Amino acid sequence: MAGGIMAIAAGAAVWFMQANSASASDEAAKAALAAGIDSKQQAAIEAIVRNYILENPEIIPEAVEILQNRQKGAALDGIRAEIESPFAGNAYAGNPNGDVILVEYSDFACPYCKQTTADIDRIVKEDKNIKVVFRELPILSEASNDAALMALAAAKQGKYYQFHKTMFATGRPTPSTIESAAKEVGLDMAAARKFIKSPEARKELQNNIQIARKLQFTGTPAFVIGNQTEVGAVGYNGLKEMIAKARKSK
Q1: Other C-beta atoms within 10 Å of 72: how many?
Q2: Which residues of 129-162 are buried (b: 16+ CB within 10 A; e: fewer)?
Q3: Among 117, 115, 109, which Cα is nearest to 134's?
Q4: In sequence order, what are the beta bridge partners of 93?
Q5: Whole-number mean pLDDT of the chain?
Q6: Which of 50, 100, 114, 247 falls 20 to 30 Å from 80 in CA-CA distance?
């Protein structure tokens, strides 16, 4: 009977959040029938649950958050291998065989991404068992798109992380700052300019944008660590907490 009550409670909660839709009511009725609960008992249980929700409305956003996390987890399952594999095998920092993989989506024109570079660098130096995979998500300007393409060219030449840090340290992306950062880390500029025009480079950025939409990222930086996703400059302590949680869940 307890299981049947929980089923009705779940059905009632869904009914409340979906404005008493016909489909939600049908689901609740099916659950009641399967549990051997008659229509009067079902009505009584739904009334109790509805009253509880009205008196404790804070459970609604909690339920929505749980649902969103489940949806993100399901989305991650199908793309995890793809997003955790660094572009050209080189767009990463830290231990290539780390037990936890931190994936960061960033934009070179994003001040919060620039702020995060120090946090990531500190984590890589302190945690010898972390792998940080970088993915370009240039959504703020054409210049950030150009910088992202140059970062991919740097990855093709095995100098991604050097360029990543140097570009953020150089300043907001412009044609001059992008070229300055590329030359500072010793890129073959002829090869880099050829690569950034390639279908491979454009496809990588398009894929990153599509995945960011699927994961409901609304800005940068955005992170994937284990089954967790976060958007915004969560800071050193926030990243450490996410890493610890990912390790604990293994």
Answers
A1: 18
A2: ebbbbbbbbbbbbebbbbbbbbbbbbbbbebbbb
A3: 117
A4: 132
A5: 88
A6: 114
> Distance between CA 62 and CA 242 in Å, rounded?
19
Query: Contact, 229 vs 214, CB < 8 A?
Result: no
Token pair 């992202």 in the structure block, residue = 148
**How far is Cα 58 from Cα 52, in angstroms, rounded to an integer?**
11
Contact 184, 109 (CB under 8 A): no
**pLDDT at residue 6 in the model:** 42
| pLDDT tens per residue, range 194-246 | 999 999 999 999 999 999 998 889 999 999 999 899 999 999 999 999 999 99
pLDDT of amino acid 223: 98
Query: CA 105, CA 208: separation in Å to the nearest integer?
Result: 8
